């Protein structure tokens, strides 16, 4: 029997998101998709079933956030027929399943996903955030295997933020940590580099760097705190 967490904001999610799942003999906990932090209060699941049947942007951001956790888990994404056309490798899910799949298919996909497990980073110099890979040894950043053309300071800024996931830094703190105490430029330098980084990360990944209003910036690998 597998330990499964179903992430969904739907009312009666078991019956609406993936009805066939309810017919299987697994331990299932339903956690609101909007309360991803609640996962830390649930025993480490064998598989996370992620609801992508309604809010696909939230599902994508959540999948990338799960992939960036210290202890990532396999993610089975439940989709409608139309959603299948939108999902991509950058979503960082282990597998996908149609919401109306039968119990036998769901069981097979759960079994394969749990056996496959999440990819583990072997090299400590490599930082992974969803589909973004930051290699400190070679000073390269890749998205889905495609290198990004970053300047030295852009790389250092992204690496520093990614090494401190969830922590908010003021512009002054980022200046001292990335540019050094002997740098005499203004804090607008940070804003310019953040803007360039987001542009280079692209629409699918710019949300990794979050603006915390009136404070500074954070690397969350999840949803933006402001639009």
Automatic annotation (TrEMBL):
The keyword Cytoplasm does not apply. It comes from the Bacteria. Residues 124-221 bind DNA. Keywords: DNA-binding. SUPFAM superfamilies: C-terminal effector domain of the bipartite response regulators, CheY-like. The keyword Amino-acid biosynthesis does not apply. It holds the Pfam family Trans_reg_C. Residues 124-221 form the OmpR/PhoB-type domain. InterPro entries: CheY-like_superfamily, GlnR_N, OmpR/PhoB-type_DNA-bd, Sig_transdc_resp-reg_C-effctor, WalR-like, WH-like_DNA-bd_sf. This is Two-component system response regulator GlnR. It comes from Kocuria gwangalliensis.
């Amino acid at each position: 029997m597998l330990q499964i967490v179903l992430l969904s904001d739907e009312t009666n999610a078991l019956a609406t998101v993936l009805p066939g799942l309810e017919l299987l003999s697994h331990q299932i906990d339903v956690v609101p998709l909007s309360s991803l932090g609640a996962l830390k209060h649930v025993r480490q699941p064998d598989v996370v079933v992620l609801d992508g049947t309604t809010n696909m942007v939230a599902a994508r951001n959540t999948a990338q956030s799960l992939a960036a956790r210290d202890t990532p888990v396999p993610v089975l994404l439940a989709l409608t027929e139309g959603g299948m056309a939108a999902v991509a490798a950058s979503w960082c899910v282990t597998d996908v399943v149609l919401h109306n799949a039968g119990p036998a298919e769901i069981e097979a996909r759960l079994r394969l996903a749990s056996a496959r497990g999440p990819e583990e980073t072997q090299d400590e110099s490599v930082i992974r955030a969803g589909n973004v890979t930051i290699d400190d040894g070679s000073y390269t950043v890749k998205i889905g295997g495609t290198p990004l053309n970053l300047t030295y300071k852009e790389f250092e800024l992204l690496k520093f933020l990614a090494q401190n996931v969830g922590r908010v830094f003021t512009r002054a703190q980022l200046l001292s940590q990335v540019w050094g105490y002997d740098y005499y430029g203004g804090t607008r330098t940070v804003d310019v580099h953040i803007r360039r980084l987001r542009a280079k990360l692209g629409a699918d990944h710019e949300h990794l760097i979050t603006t915390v209003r009136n404070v500074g910036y954070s690397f969350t690998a999840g949803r933006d705190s402001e639009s």
